[in-house]
Amino acid sequence: MNRREFLATAAVATSGPILLGTTRKADEPNPVIGTGDHKYQCVHNWGELPKDYAWQTTHNVALDSQGHVYITHQGVGKQMDTVLVFDPAGKFVRSFGKEWHGGGHGIEIRKEGSDEFIYLSNTWTPKMKLVKTTLKGEVVWQAGVPECKEYEPKPDPKDSTKTQPAKFNPTNICWLPDGGFTVGDGYGSNYMLNYDKDGKLVKVFGGGGNALGKLSTPHGQWLDARDKDKPVLVVCDRANARLQWFDLDGKALAASTPKELVLFPAHAKTRGDVLLVPDLHARVSILDRANKPVVHLGDDEVWRKKVLDGFKVRGQPKEWVAGKFVHPHDAAFDKDGNIFVVEWVSTGRVTFLKKVA
What architecture (CATH level 2) is domain 57-148+164-292+317-355? Predict the structure, then answer.
């Protein structure tokens, strides 16, 4: 989250929760949260870190075909590997990416032919913003600021003899059916960018604003193919407090009413008929095929007001409550329907939601 968003969201009162039920007991160490077919045992602080490792701010999570869990984290100070890898039971496997320290943000994994590759969006690194690697972290492809008119240097408003470089700070990547991928420039110029399978830029759409088709911090996006005949791109238009849907050519189709479905959406992923939306405002939402709320996991208005009060709680682990989230920044399903949640907190946190219903 950048400072502008931090100040804006802290000043805005959050909407009340939709009461969709829960079975959790606050005094249980691993309480069950959720309702109906979406009940989960909440296991905080998942993953065994080696003694010489420590989480910094955890950002995103992805799984490979073997169920290994890849987590990005970002921080300052002592240089650490950006990506940490765990087996399905939470045992540490390996780490890599010191060269992206301080910039680790989005991560997704895709199978291409017989191999799997990681795609990273390294938001705050100075040059190589987009990186494709093997599962061991060996770089295959990388790219910096796009070469197109939207990202040409702009006149400096303070000095007409100078120009300012375009802002390009991508936050997440998702896949397209033709083998290409879409990048969200969430912390840069608010554009969405479609690339082909070879990493060549083919389309730019969106841009800053709050009208239909315009975006303010498009922080995450996903190919929503729940309707296989009409796949669409769902974008987490975070600072506008809404989801937007686009066709695969970038035409805006619809947008949710601000704070109706989501409060401050960070990313989105699908499994079966549901859409999973980690929300930076202290909950994880699951929407049905019609994009109606099924459950807002961890939702609690009183708790949300506390964690949004100056964002102090994100740095106070002793104040955290079992079964509640502080700032969910990404989430992902495993093959069994369990959910991994990573949070934008200063000490980092990974929560494993074990499906019990």
Answer: 6 Propeller (2.120)
